[in-house]
């Protein structure tokens, strides 16, 4: 479990106990307990085993593939995969491939609905660039309408393993992955994926 879950969950349980001992309100105490249980559940962090294989790229997040298409950039053709996370998904993000984290840039921004395509440009976000001998990919954690904080566990220069935890986005959000244009896609738009275990693509 992410430590925030203990902070919010256990804190609210303490509030519920204090409320019950002073006010004895079953309804209010019950609501506080339910909210505490929600936070404990929301910040769950299940173990995942990354699949083995040359050039595999795994999903960085749990959720639904909202976009899966080839785009043109100043660096050439790229494949962009966008994953939308709702409030019921696990929100711990993982690295799509093994390699070195060569750059990590935090950008302040707005809090538009994460499903809006413009959210990738204007919302609060963390951009990570991961490189190995095979390719360089970009991973973007994007805050959503309810999300108000992106927490990362890694820094530039770190060596990452495929499926390693790299951060968490609080509440509804979106994660974008930018792959080389010759990557072979293994999923389609609308697919449900799991962080660290669902294969998104295979690099050439």
Give structural attributes.
204 residues, alpha+beta, Glucose Permease (Domain IIA), 8-stranded antiparallel sheet, elongated
Brief rundown of the structure:
This protein is α+β, with helices and mostly antiparallel strands and about 200 residues long. It is built from three helices and 14 strands.
Task: Describe the fold and architecture.
The chain is α+β, with helices and mostly antiparallel strands. It folds into two domains: 3-42; 56-202, Glucose Permease (Domain IIA) (Distorted Sandwich). It is built from three helices and 14 strands. The strands form three sheets. An eight-stranded antiparallel sheet has the order 9-5-6-7-11-3-2-13. Strands 1-14-12 form a three-stranded antiparallel sheet, with no helix packed on it. It has a three-stranded antiparallel sheet with strand order 4-10-8, with no helix packed on it. Helix 1 (3-22) runs antiparallel to helix 2. The longest helix is centred in the first third of the chain and has 20 residues, at 3-22. The radius of gyration is 19 Å and the shape is elongated. The mean pLDDT is 88.
